[in-house]
Design a protein that fits this description.
GO terms for molecular function: phosphorelay sensor kinase activity. It is built from 17 helices and 17 strands. It has about 625 residues and is of the alpha+beta class.
Length: about 625
């Protein structure tokens, strides 16, 4: 039995090995799917972060571009409000405006204003422009006292022309203009638009001398030439004058209050757009010039988060952040991060599915191993059962052989003693025929058992087919249960076979033809063909095409045409095929119909050189 189980064991081992390889490849596929899903998750996250980075950069650039006109105006007009704007030119901060003052410690502008009011200001000989300014101021004063409106306007225009031609120090220019305009506002009747321009907006010199700034703008522009005390003093006077002539002062006072005392702590070298965590977005201009925009970084990120949620790009629990602690971030590589519990849930779901698939593979492997073990045990039990069956058949057959021999002996004696009585003469013949049938059955059982267990080694020798047919004809004449006509179309061909086994094979085909036949006589025909083929044809009831292979099964029997049960063991055709295979040949149903069946037997022919070698 171990030798029989060896092919089964080899097949199971090879099957399990193939299954292991398949499961291994499947596990690799699952691992690759997990990595692909992770990559897809990372790709989606990176795409969202890229979108957030681009949206943030676009918002910063658009915000700064929107303030371009305000920056240009603020650069020229110190009264323009510049909330959240930054401008640096030639290394100096222009916006937000700085409160840069002269640190001399005294108050020359305030003192000069007092002397001008008291009429005690005198110019030195080398101060020609200042002396001329004082003279023109005196002409304006005389015109005002004379209440000559035309003379006042002419003398004022002459003063403005002189002011446009000569640039005096701020500590002289500002107090002198302030005194003149205060006097004009208090005693003169000058054109109101001119007064407002001189106090606030300024005038354009028609002779190409440039622009004459009003007092408000001039004071803001020249603050670095004044001491803090002078600035505060002049600011108060300008506010009072502006109020008197009806010029707005709210923006002027706001500009004086919002001036910073120190420059903003922003990076010096800005070569590309950057974002400072302190709340500024900066862009480089020509040279070392820089412009920028103050921003609410947390509010900007919150707005971007809200926008992405509204677009369906983020869940309600997701948000955009700027991780890290670097004080300055370049716009091209902003470390924008999209944080969401969705990523964590996705990773956990991936791992969960991967673990489930791996567990399923392990269960499949365990199940396959269990099935293999059960199959091996079942096969072992099957072979054990077959051995028991074979032993049983052999035992029963052996036990039947002795009584069958006794029956035949008694029948022959009976036949001899009652040869003279006609009535009893049929019984002995019937006993002999039945005994022969039982003997044939026993012979089939014994032969089947020996061949099935590999105990019959065929004695191969040259066998003439015509001699086999002749022997078969003699057997039919002496023991056929019904009339049988045997015809043959055979030549002197020799087969390399065991003569006893071939005789048993033909006898089984003959008995099978007689059992499945309703005609009388039973006609049999044996014919030889090329290639070692032998056709055995009968005129029986035929075999359905669907049963052509099944009839060669062990213990398989077909019912008769009228449904009657046909006697037999079901081993005849199975034994015939085993005999054919034992010789290295084949046996099959070549054709079958209601007119009969043709079996094709193929056996190796005897070669003459085999005899010479022997």
């Amino acid at each position: 039995m171990p030798r029989r189980l060896l092919p089964t064991l080899v097949a199971l081992v090879l099957g399990l090995a193939g299954l292991a390889v398949g499961l291994g490849y499947l596990h690799r596929i699952f691992a690759a799917e997990r990595e692909d899903a992770r990559a897809s998750l990372r790709s989606r996250r990176e795409a969202l972060e890229q979108y957030a980075r681009a949206s943030l950069g676009q918002a910063l650039r658009e915000g700064l571009d929107a303030s371009r006109s305000t920056l240009a105006a603020a650069k020229e007009d110190p009264l323009v409000a510049t909330p959240g704007l930054y401008l640096r030119e030639q290394g100096e901060q222009v916006l937000p405006r700085l409160a840069l003052f002269d640190t001399a410690g005294d108050s020359p502008a305030k003192d000069r204003y007092a002397r001008l009011r008291a009429g005690t200001e005198v110019a030195d000989e080398d101060e020609g422009p200042w002396k001329e300014r004082l003279e023109r101021m005196a002409l304006v004063e005389q015109s005002l006292k004379a209440k000559d409106r035309r003379a006042t306007l002419l003398s004022l225009m002459a003063l403005l022309q002189h002011r446009a031609r000569f640039v005096l120090a701020s500590t002289r220019d500002l107090p002198s203009m302030l005194v003149v305009l205060e006097d004009v506002a208090a005693r003169g009747d000058v054109v109101p638009d001119l007064m407002r321009a001189l106090v606030r907006d300024g005038l354009v010199d028609g002779q190409g001398g440039g622009r004459l700034e009003g007092l408000q703008r001039l004071l803001l522009l020249k603050r670095s030439r004044l001491t803090p005390e002078d600035f505060d003093f002049l600011r108060g006077k300008v506010v009072a004058l502006s109020t008197r002539v009806g010029v707005p002062v709210a923006d002027f006072e706001a500009r004086t209050r919002e001036m910073a005392s120190t420059p903003l702590p922003l990076p010096e070298d800005v070569r590309e757009p950057v974002l400072a965590r302190s709340g500024w977005y900066l862009e480089p201009l020509q040279g070392s010039d820089v412009r920028g925009l103050a921003l609410d970084l947390s509010g900007l990120l919150a707005g971007l988060t809200r926008e992405m949620r509204e677009r369906g790009l983020l869940k309600a629990d997701g948000h955009v952040t700027l991780p890290g602690d670097a004080p300055v971030l370049t716009l091209a590589s902003l470390p924008v991060a999209v944080e969401s519990p969705e990523w964590t849930r996705g990773e956990e779901a991936l791992e969960s599915r991967y673990r489930i698939k791996t567990l399923m593979l392990a269960l499949c492997a365990a199940l396959a191993l269990t099935i293999a073990v059960l199959a091996f045990v079942a096969q072992q039990r099957k072979y054990r059962f077959l051995e028991l069956k074979s032993d049983f058949v052999a035992t029963v057959s052996h036990e039947l052989r002795t009584p069958l021999a006794s029956i035949r002996l008694l029948a022959e004696t009976l036949e001899w003693r009652v040869a003279e009585g006609a009535d009893a003469k049929d019984y002995p013949a019937r006993i002999i025929r039945e005994a022969d049938g039982l003997g044939f059955l026993v012979e089939n059982l014994l032969s089947f058992n020996r061949i099935d267990k590999g105990r019959w080694v065929p004695k191969l020798a040259p066998v003439r087919l015509d001699e086999l047919v002749s022997n078969l004809r003699r057997d039919l004449e002496s023991g056929a249960p019904m009339p049988v006509e045997l015809t043959a179309d055979v030549d002197a061909r020799e087969l390399n076979a065991d003569a006893q086994l071939l005789r048993l094979l033909l006898a089984n085909l003959t008995r099978n033809a007689c059992a499945y036949n309703t005609r009388s006589p039973v006609r049999l025909h044996v014919q030889t063909l090329s290639g070692g083929r032998v056709h055995f044809t009968d005129n029986g009831t035929g075999i359905p095409a669907s049963e052509w292979e099944h009839v060669f099964g062990e213990f398989y029997r077909l019912s008769g045409r009228d449904g009657r049960e046909v006697p037999g063991s079901g081993l005849g055709l199975a034994l015939c095929r085993k005999i054919a295979r034992l010789h290295g040949g084949t046996l099959r149903v070549a054709a079958s119909s209601a007119e009969g069946t043709t079996f094709e037997l193929t056996l190796p022919e005897y070669r003459p050189e085999a005899r010479s070698n022997a």
